[in-house]
Design brief:
Blueprint lengths: L8 E3 L2 H10 L7 E3 L15 H7 L7 E3 L9 H13 L6 E3 L11 H11 L6 E3 L5 H10 L2 E4 L8 H9 L3 E4 L2 H7 L4 E3 L4 H14 L12 H31 L1
């Protein structure tokens, strides 16, 4: 519908642009890529991460997985990686948060959770459910690393938030993650639990106690660049609309 209307199309990544061109080769719309950046609200950073960690009974070193329980978010791969680490006698804790409800597949959370119990991983995979956003930021800032095993993303909000604090990242090796992090993360295949297990083990061995991170100094520049790109796209779309209107009148 958006294409048929002749509107300017705004996408969040070059990866999405490649998909757009592949699936809609006949589209003649003006297409712009605007990569968003996040600015964590200062009020949300007043929560003490140490208190949040204690409230959820987490160890000093843990990995954070703040994804909704949708199948494409690929939680099962994390369970498989933890199973491998358990076999290696490597003690790793994954802290997960997010909704367990998906109207498209109501039983998915129960399926994953049953695997966690069947494999005796309750102490290693901790699902907190939906938690307050200040707690999300607190857990992210103090985590050993952010994990995102997703099979598909647009422009990942969780990755962008991790970047804003300089949190290390262990990410699925999909195009948009490479684009979003410019090669600065650890990557694993979406069907490769061994690679994920190896990354988790290495990151856990490299961790030296809890580190509470603050917003990186250049984050204001990143947000300003996003705002400028967004504004330029709006001006371009408005100009395109005027041109189309004039052409229609002629």
């Amino acid at each position: 519908m958006q294409i048929a209307s002749g509107r300017t199309i705004m996408l969040s990544s070059e990866s999405a642009l490649r998909d757009f061109k592949a699936y809609y080769p006949g589209a003649r719309n003006q297409v712009c890529v605007v990569r968003f950046a996040t600015q964590p609200p200062a009020a949300f950073l007043n929560t003490d991460p140490a208190e949040v960690i204690a409230a959820y009974h987490l160890p000093a070193n843990y990995f954070y997985l703040p994804n909704q329980f949708y199948r494409h978010k690929n939680h099962q791969l994390v369970v498989d990686a933890l199973t491998i680490l358990k076999g290696r006698a490597v003690d790793v804790v994954i802290c997960a948060s997010g909704s367990k409800e998906d109207r498209r597949e109501p039983g998915y959370y129960d399926l994953v959770n049953s695997e966690i119990h069947k494999r005796g991983l309750e102490a290693h995979f901790r699902h907190l459910g939906v938690i307050p956003l200040p707690h999300v930021y607190a857990l992210l800032r103090a985590s050993t690393a952010l994990i995102n095993p997703s099979r598909f993303e647009g422009w990942s909000t969780t990755v962008e938030e991790a970047k804003s604090f300089g949190v290390p990242m262990i990410l699925s090796d999909i195009d948009v993650h490479r684009e979003q992090t410019a090669g600065s993360a650890r990557y694993f295949g979406v069907d490769d639990p061994v690679a994920l297990a190896d990354h988790l083990m290495q990151a856990a061995q490299d961790a030296h106690g809890p580190i509470i991170r603050n917003v990186v100094p250049h984050q204001n520049d990143n947000v300003s660049a996003f705002a400028a790109s967004f504004a330029a796209t709006m001006r371009q779309a408005a100009a395109e609309n005027v041109d189309n209107s004039l052409a229609t009148r002629k």
